[in-house]
Amino acid sequence: MQSFLDLVRRRYSLRSYSAKPVERDKIERCLEAGRMAPSACNSQPWHFVAVDEAEQVHRIAEACLLPGSKLNSFTASVPAFIAVVAEKPKLSAALGSLVKNKALYLLDLGMAAEHICLQAAEEGLGSCMLGWFNEKKIRRILQIPRSRRIPLLISLGYAPEDAKTPEKRRKSSAETISWNRY
């Protein structure tokens, strides 16, 4: 059994996918992991739209492209996506956001998204969180109400067989951690 830190160290943003479809039971476990994430005032301000039908996946991938750029071009090979939709938070969480001048619902969505990505790694899947996409097109493709925002998309799939896990380059502990004062 691997440790949680081993799982965290193994998870990375995959930007090259094999054509192998992702099994629905694996996607369901990823969704369940996201659903179980903590949130401010237990608001759970999310709705997840899983996309695994080939035509829908293709349309989502096209909505991720920046014309004239290679940005997100890897999405053409993605076999599944999860759209993370922001729902209206509970009143107590919304008031807390106002009082503290923090968009708590975005923190909640980030935790849910990372739960999804960590479960994907546990399932042997790769994932990548995307913030650059044509939200209006994706909202239309997935029939998401105009009153809702889509802060993130998560791509899911298997790495190509010849893929090598990249080395994680992180700042040192001395640069990023301190005790009892900044």
Number of helices: 7
Helix content: 25-40%
Shape designation: globular
Low-confidence stretches: none
CATH homologous superfamily placement: NADH Oxidase
Approximate strand percentage: 5-15%
Sequence of secondary-structure elements: HHEHEHHEHEH
The CATH architecture designation is: 3-Layer(aba) Sandwich
Mean pLDDT: 94
The major pleated sheet works out as:
4 strands, antiparallel
Q: Supply Rg.
A: 17 Å
By secondary-structure content and strand pairing, the structural class works out as alpha+beta
Written overview of the protein:
- With 182 residues, the protein is α+β, with helices and mostly antiparallel strands.
- The chain is 38% helix and 15% strand.
- The protein has a single domain (4-176), classed as NADH Oxidase (3-Layer(aba) Sandwich), CATH 3.40.109.
- The mean pLDDT is 94.
Features:
182 residues, alpha+beta, NADH Oxidase, 38% helix, 15% strand
How is this structure best summarized?
With 182 residues, this protein is α+β, with helices and mostly antiparallel strands. It has helices at 4-10, 24-35, 54-63, 91-100, 104-122, 135-141, 173-176, and strands at residues 46-51, 80-86, 126-130, 149-157.
